[in-house]
Amino acid sequence: MAIRALVWGENVHERTNKAVGALYPEGMHTCIASALNTADGIIATTATLQEPEHGLTSTRLAETDVLLWWGHAAHGDVDDGIVDRVVEQVWAGMGLILLHSAHFSKIFKRLMGTPCNLSWREAGERERIWVVNPSHPIAEGLPSHFVLENEEMYGEPFGVPEPLETVFISWFQGGEVFRSGLTYRRGAGNIFYFRPGHETYPTYHDGMVQHVLTNAVRWAYNPAPRLTEVTVAPNVPVERAPEPIETRGPSVHQPGDQGHH
Ligand code: ZN
């Protein structure tokens, strides 16, 4: 069965900036989805901020194995209820790939629990992306490094938790470095942050970048059935304990307590 990828685009710059619209006439999300659809075993569709419920209904998310997220100018316009919904699906096992300026998305910040801040410069400089974990599935088939001739610079320190794995480190022409490919797991969900993708450059047309995203979708996919009720914390009464409890210590609960939550 194919992996169902959903590419979510904020879809603002493409409609308001002529240069971006020329690079991505159908939006960055469509460019990324088209690339993923050329890969075996992946079926990619798109959703945007402007759709009802941002195109992320409960049904749509339940049918999504891996969600890719690009946002920048309108992070604040993403409805908090939808953020909760996406975060719960990640905890339940949906894969999540955060692209470029999605480092400041509500979803990523919630899942990381840190400011996710960084330094940046927009000078169209060269980015050299080094594979620092060559045996990682996301690096499969890549050379030791590859170059994007024009990109925005992101610099360390990157205010994220220590990652599960570091797959890529970028060097920029101006001298900075940045951990540009990081993995996390939150609940049952695999998370990958991938740095490149500034809207005014043709990054998502780049074959290497498309290769990374294809690998990342395959890596982030969790084939286990999606967990249900991930936020529920049930009480297990004494009579339903797996083993009989014969000698009981004093309970801190008084009769009539509704539990400790
Ligand atoms: Zn950018």
Helix and strand pattern: EHHHEHEHEHEEEEEH
- How would you sum up the global shape? globular
At CATH level 2, the architecture of the domain at 3-116 and 180-220 is 3-Layer(aba) Sandwich
Kindly report the name of the CATH homologous superfamily of the domain at 3-116 and 180-220: Class I glutamine amidotransferase (GATase) domain
> What's the arrangement of strands in the largest beta sheet?
2-1-3-4-9-8-7-5-6
Overall number of strands:
9
End-to-end Cα distance? 41 Å
Taking pLDDT < 50 over at least 5 consecutive residues as the criterion, the unreliable ranges are none
Return the CATH class of the domain at 3-116 and 180-220.
Alpha Beta
Radius of gyration: 21 Å
Helix and strand composition category: alpha/beta
Q: Can you summarize the main beta sheet?
A: 9 strands, mixed
Q: How much strand content do the residues show?
A: 25-35%
> What value does the average pLDDT take?
95
**Helical percentage:** 10-25%
Which fold does the CATH topology of the domain at 3-116 and 180-220 refer to? Answer: Rossmann fold
Ligands (ions, cofactors included): zinc ion
How many helical stretches? 7
